[in-house]
């Protein structure tokens, strides 16, 4: 099929109307997801939204990974449209709510976390900050055994010198450095890096292991204030493994420089996964030998030494 991509100067290589695109997909018996973006009501707003559309399409078209929703094409006129694969499963948010208060199976929770970490590691390796990592933007595959990251609407290319818009994302999952000690004006710029995604991942991992809403009982603004100005974090239940608690707490420490990279997170989660045996017939989980458990302890010690050095 024809792929409709934006060139660097934001002109379309091929122009098709939404109707033509739909007819093409129907004819080829291809089920897709179509995201329609509004153009705005003023010329200023229109220019901003068109730039955001071009940026989103450019990033989606150049990063390909098994845990990223597959980009198919885009159309600029008469509507701004982005076409991606359609995952028949629901969002991770809906899935967690459908089984709440029952927690996820531990193996499944860790495998979901690894899927997310791999997707984020690939984005960061390509210089992209997602800035809106949360369960709503994580979609389950048809067999509900894997997740893929979607929605690059707030994603940006990371630059050392560039100042980026603060207060970007969703409050309960936003890193505290996206705020300042004084309330930021709308659209104010400040420096931050890809470790904002690591903080968000820490909140998501906590959700995967608890199946609870972060900062329960608080409004979105109250949650943001508690995290940014009172250094509060969701409480980690006592029944969560100390190794997993360490990963979560490492991700949401106040100082972004002390948070692990996603490649380190992947190694720690894999090391923990290796300490678990396959489930027995009655669903209980047994542990492997102390030698396998030692793999995680070694990684944990290395990371702790790095934090002490800093």
What report would you give on this structure?
One of its GO terms (cellular component) is cytoplasm. It holds the Pfam family PK_Tyr_Ser-Thr. Keywords: Kinase, Transferase. One of its GO terms (molecular function) is protein kinase activity. With 310 residues, this protein is mainly α. It has two domains: 18-85, 2-Layer Sandwich (Phosphorylase Kinase, domain 1); 92-309, Transferase(Phosphotransferase) domain 1 (Transferase(Phosphotransferase), domain 1). It has helices at 18-27, 43-62, 92-99, 106-125, 195-210, 220-229, 242-251, 262-273, 290-309; strands at 32-37, 71-75, 80-85, 128-129, 138-140, 147-149, 156-157, 164-165, 189-190. It has a three-stranded antiparallel sheet with strand order 1-3-2, with helices on one face.
List the helices and strands and how they pair.
Layout (H helix, E strand, L loop, with lengths): L17 H10 L4 E6 L5 H20 L8 E5 L4 E6 L6 H8 L6 H20 L2 E2 L8 E3 L6 E3 L6 E2 L6 E2 L23 E2 L4 H16 L9 H10 L12 H10 L10 H12 L16 H20 L1
Antiparallel strand pairs: 1-3, 2-3, 4-7, 5-6, 8-9
